[in-house]
Design goal:
Layout (H helix, E strand, L loop, with lengths): L63 H7 L3 H11 L6 H16 L2 E5 L6 H16 L3 E5 L2 H23 L5 E3 L9 H6 L27 H13 L16 H4 L22 H10 L3 E5 H9 L10 E4 L5 H8 L2 E4 H14 L8 H21 L3 E2 L5 H24 L7 H26 L10 E6 L11 E6 L3 H9 L3 E6 L9 H7 L41 E5 L6 H4 E5 L13 H14 L3 E4 L3 H11 L7 E3 L5 H10 L4 E4 L1 H6 L9 E4 L10 H12 L4 H18 L10 E5 L3 H4 L3 H5 L6 E3 L2 H18 L19
Parallel strand pairs: 1-10, 1-11, 2-4, 2-5, 3-4, 5-10, 12-17, 12-18, 13-15, 13-16, 14-15, 16-17
Antiparallel strand pairs: 6-9, 7-8, 8-9
Helix pairs in contact: 2-4, 2-5, 3-4, 4-5, 10-11, 12-13, 12-14, 12-15, 13-14, 14-15, 19-27, 23-24
């Protein structure tokens, strides 16, 4: 979706265009604007290289200094935007908008913590739109979730551009852009090779997958048939517009990666290509909405996948490190290597005289050896590479390289055959990935285990999931260095989320992003560390940024607070009287406590558990002990479970990770959030354990830097499920007593919203009872007016 009146486009890039090196970012000045020169971006003191239409207020203005005097300032634009959507300005929203504008002008990076209800999307979109239109450039907004992308594209941006158009003289243009694999490929859908014998590589064969009545017999066949039907109607080809969605195995039959694409100029469907249309639209937009994964690919690869841009806004920034890590993780499995070898053999049958089938056989033999080696290896982090596995990985890398050479030799002269070229491109992409991943794994085992850049582990599927093969994975130990060099070093970045200050400081996440811990201001002082053996991360300096250094990137942190009155709206209850949680099943005392809390709340409970096993165990034990409906993640599609939970007030919902961050249920359907234990990473988590070891080897506190920071982030996200509107009331109950008794408890509690805190179960049950009575008396139609809301905790009304 995009609006009209696009900016004057720069020359569009092709999928294979190399990335132009940019001038590294220098240390900014707080007093003078700093604009880095990038391809297609004007300098502060120069003329714009993109001519604006003569009908708008930018006409005839040759430099941004003059334009800035003509364009309304951020405060006026924000006021118009808020009025246009029928809202009310909030102090935190105004402060955030001004901070984002200041970051754009100075080139100083910004981290903003803005609580739910602040209106942070408008707070960053308004200065982003102003900058993009003043400079005829593009601002990229990256989110972690599809839900926020849809909110920005379907609701926030359409209303914003309509509200700002009278002040700007025209409507800003906006677009959404995703990775090529997210768009249906018409050539893949209509031109796949029907003679292939690999169901992972082709569309279903009507004969093989059809029943006697002529319809597809297998679940995969039915899903692919549905994709064919959707392909005739869709205007965008965007996978996320297909509701309900389809499994990955089906989607891969109608999509290609950027490496597999033969190029629009060679493809018979190039003029109708959904991915190319999206790229063209994005190239003309002032604001481009994308996801963290595509931002990571753009930052880490040598190919430009996003339009040229000088400013990035990262929403849901608490998830950035995990998303970048996931996007840069490689994997190898025996069946995966074998499937690529079979594709190679099919392409090189005609080249028997050149020995091509022999190289495909070599790759199949390496795949068989890999299957055996991984089947015999223990699951978990791999610190030592065995000689046998090392030899097998070397064979995979060399055989994949030989296959690639054979295919390139046999594919010469096929430029006029799009179908043959597509098959070759897809196979070459798979072979290149095999070579790259095998090489990464082999190179990961340096002599000094604490100086390694990557971590390798073996994912062994459970016995009951025989369809999954053992898979070897490799991931960067830290992504901060690449983010520092390829993202923060080249563009101005504003990061925002409701949860960025862990333990009261931005430092833990700043370090993970690759920013200097001494480079930013602190939102508020963290709690004092223990008297001895300090466990808290070091405090950044209060009240200023560090002195400029050539290798240092300036950044600042800002906590604009929340419009919610947390101490009067919510209680943090820590069940201090319970025993510490064990590694096995939930103690009976936990189940009893949970049962009493649910009874007091009249249902209305979201149970957040550290594992799916614990969630299912608690659901199974309590279904016969409580009088309220109880849903558990896995009973149905998660979105349907959340919908049912929201619509039926007495219902309870238990689940794990995706519910910690993905549930938005305002009103009296959710008045109790229960967290079974502090969500530390598992001791055998390969990435977390390797990162802890590396921090400790450098003289730091690995537990606090990695495990406690991850737990603090999840706790803050989970607690944030409680208050979603100004009228919400309720309790966050943590059954794990270590939140109060352990030395790291201060750090974790400082990461949570400032609820009124108690360890007295009687006070909590009484408060939940008052809330339940009020909700039942008022009914589900509307929340109680402020004057009649029940008081949750002792204190002044």
């Amino acid at each position: 979706m995009t609006k009209t009146s696009p900016k004057t486009p720069s020359s569009p890039k092709t999928p294979s265009s190399p990335k132009t090196p940019r001038t590294p970012k220098a240390v900014g000045s707080a007093n003078a604007p700093q604009v880095r020169k990038t391809s297609g971006s004007p300098e502060t003191s120069g003329s714009s290289s993109k001519a604006a239409p003569a009908s708008d207020i930018f006409s005839g203005l040759g430099d941004t200094t003059s334009i800035s005097k003509t364009v309304p300032d951020v405060a006026d634009l924000l006021a118009a935007a808020v009025a246009g959507i029928g809202g009310a300005e909030r102090p935190g929203q105004v402060a955030m908008a001004q901070a984002v504008q200041r970051a754009i002008e100075t080139g100083e990076h910004l981290a903003v913590q803005a609580g739910t209800g602040t209106g942070k999307s408008l707070a960053y979109l308004v200065p982003a739109v102003r900058h993009a239109m003043m400079t005829e450039s593009t601002v990229v907004v990256a989110t972690a979730t599809i839900a926020l992308q849809r909110q920005l594209i379907d609701r926030d941006l359409p209303r914003l551009v309509t509200a700002l158009a009278p002040l700007l003289g025209r409507e800003p243009a906006f677009a959404i852009l995703k990775g090529r694999r997210n768009y249906l490929c018409l050539h893949r859908q209509r031109g796949a090779d029907p003679n292939t014998d690999d169901p992972q590589d082709s569309l279903f064969e009507p004969v093989a997958l059809s029943n006697q009545e002529g319809g597809p017999a297998s679940p995969l066949g039915r899903q692919v048939k549905r994709l064919h039907e959707w392909a005739e109607d869709t205007m965008t080809g965007d996978r996320d517009e297909l509701v309900p969605g389809v499994p990955e195995a089906a989607w891969r039959q109608v999509s290609v990666s950027a490496q597999e694409c033969i190029g629009a100029h060679r493809c018979p469907f190039g003029s109708r290509c959904f991915a190319e249309r999206a790229r063209d639209t994005a190239a003309k937009a002032h604001v481009v909405v994308t996801n963290h994964a595509l931002l990571a690919i753009d930052a880490t690869s040598d190919i430009d996948v996003l339009p040229e841009h000088d400013v990035v806004v990262i929403d849901e920034a608490h998830d950035l490190v995990d998303r970048v890590t996931s996007a840069t993780t490689g994997e190898l499995s025996g069946p995966g290597v074998d499937a690529t070898a079979r594709r190679c053999a099919r392409l090189t049958d005609s080249a028997a005289a050149d020995g091509a089938p022999a190289v495909a056989d070599r790759l199949r033999q390496a795949a068989a050896a890999l299957t055996v080696d991984l089947g015999d290896a223990p699951a978990g982090r791999m610190d030592v590479l065995s000689g046998a596995l090392g030899a097998t990985l070397t064979s995979v890398r060399e055989a994949a390289g030989a296959c690639a050479e054979a295919i390139r030799a046999s594919a010469s002269g096929q430029e006029e055959d799009p179908q043959a070229m597509a098959a070759a491109r897809m196979t070459l992409a798979a072979l290149d990935e095999l070579q790259r991943t095998a090489g990464r794994i082999l190179d990961a085992f340096g002599a000094d285990i604490t100086a390694r850049d990557e971590v390798v582990w073996l994912d062994q599927p459970p016995v009951e999931d025989a369809r999954r093969a053992p898979t070897l994975r490799v991931a960067p130990l830290e992504v901060g260095r690449v983010l520092r060099t390829r993202l923060f070093g080249e563009r101005t970045v504003a990061l925002t989320s409701a949860t960025l200050a862990l333990g009261g400081s931005f430092t833990p996440l700043a370090i993970q992003w690759g920013l200097n811990p001494l480079g930013g201001t602190n939102p508020k002082a963290p709690p004092d560390p223990p008297a001895s053996g300090g466990t808290h991360p070091p405090r950044p300096p209060l009240g200023g940024t560090s002195s400029p250094q050539s290798d240092q990137l300036r950044w600042s942190g800002l906590d604009v607070g929340s419009p919610f009155d947390h101490p009067r709206s919510g209680i943090l209850y820590v069940a201090r009287h319970l025993p510490p949680p064990g590694r096995d099943q939930l103690p009976e005392a936990y189940l009893t406590e949970l049962e009493e809390l649910i009874h007091a709340a009249g249902g209305r409970t979201l149970g957040l558990f550290s594992s799916m096993r614990a969630a299912k165990e608690a659901a199974g034990a309590l279904r016969g002990r409580i009088a309220h409906p109880l849903l558990c993640q896995g009973d149905d599609v998660t979105a349907q479970l959340v919908r049912q939970f929201a619509e039926d007030e007495p219902t309870c919902l238990f689940g794990t990770l995706s519910l910690w961050q993905g549930v938005d249920v305002p009103g009296s359907s959710l008045q109790l959030v229960v967290i079974d234990r502090i969500p530390f990473p598992r001791p055998d988590d390969p990435l977390a354990s390797a990162r802890q070891r590396t921090v400790a080897a450098r003289g730091g506190n690995g537990f606090m830097t990695v495990a406690a920071s991850q737990a603090a982030l999840l706790l803050a996200q989970g607690a944030g499920r409680l208050l979603r509107t100004m009228t919400d009331r309720g309790v966050v109950a943590v059954l794990d007593p270590r939140l109060m008794t352990a030395r790291y408890g201060d750090f974790l509690r400082a990461s949570l919203p400032p609820f009124w805190t108690t360890a007295d179960p009687a006070i909590v049950r009484a408060a939940l009872g008052r809330l339940a009575a009020t909700a039942e008396a008022s009914g589900p139609a509307a929340p109680a007016p402020p004057s009649s809301r029940p008081r949750l905790a002792p204190g002044p009304a």
